[in-house]
Amino acid sequence: MKKGIQFAVISSILLSGCALDSKINGMIGGLNNLLTTAKLPVTYMRPANQDNTDKIKRIAVITDRSSSNAVNLIESNLSAIRVNDKPYFTFVDQAALDKVIAQQRFNEGDLTNSNNRTRLGKLTGADTLVTALYGSDVETSTYYEERSECVEKGDKWYKCKRSRDVKVRCSEKLAKVILEPKAISVESGEIIFTKRYSQQVSSKVCEGDDPHNSDSALLGQAVSQISEELIQDVAPHSVTKLVELMESDDSDMSDDAEKMLDMGIEFAEKDMPDNACKMFSRAQSIYSESLAINYNNAVCAERAADLELALAYYQKSHNLTMDVDELKYIIEGEQRLLDRNKHNAKLAQNNNHNRL
């Protein structure tokens, strides 16, 4: 009811136009809050997206004259990965690797041979050899946009009495980056992992606008996107999902339970998830037959990584509604639990391999 009253008041102000100059910013902020659904962040670990990458431990990156960017990208990102406060990958020092290559009189052509790469890996202590191709480019194009230009102001600062259409010259920069890494097992000579990454970032600027970002800045954005995808492909990583809460239901909950529920929703809207979950827990102790309270406590249990308790709450929620839209949220929650159990089983395998 409270939100409905606030919305009606704001709507009436918009329609009447009263004191619009001084209140417009406040109204926009209020509308944003009203149209935002309360959510809780649920964070958990999931294994690498690509299979078999748990076999990669100590890496030797094979370079050539044209692959320095690829080497820097791979080493800087993968060497920074830490799981349980420990480096997930280690790298053969590039100077030591170059020395071994020189001593063995390998040239770039020799390193394309799998047997030679396997021998190189054994000499350096690496279990995985990585090669990579890297490419980048920035294209610039020109185009025109039609815009409306005010030629006569109205009686208010935000009003225009007369306008005209004009064409303005614009330009677009398109930065493209491609990375193609390949990881090869020293022991078997098999390809453990290979993938083609491609990202592009655009910048559009018209006459009178601020200038474009530099080419290096645009390429850096594309590289960052590739780096994030690469890390998630080869190593366990943290994932955060914002899960929508239920703000009310049709049950006969007491006033005290409803107050606790409302306080929990308000805490969630203020980005105070721990306090929100405390309120939902109190509401549950007062009234246990509410769909919204049970569902929200299921989300809180997910957040606390108590998957058994979360499943119990979701199952009870399932029995408290026949509404398709409400069941959709519950089914999505149960599916998240199934996915997390699969992830946890895979992470346990990594633990058995002394990776976690």
UniProtKB/TrEMBL annotation:
GO terms for cellular component: outer membrane-bounded periplasmic space. SUPFAM superfamilies: TPR-like. Transmembrane segments: none annotated. It comes from the Bacteria. This is Curli production assembly/transport component CsgG.
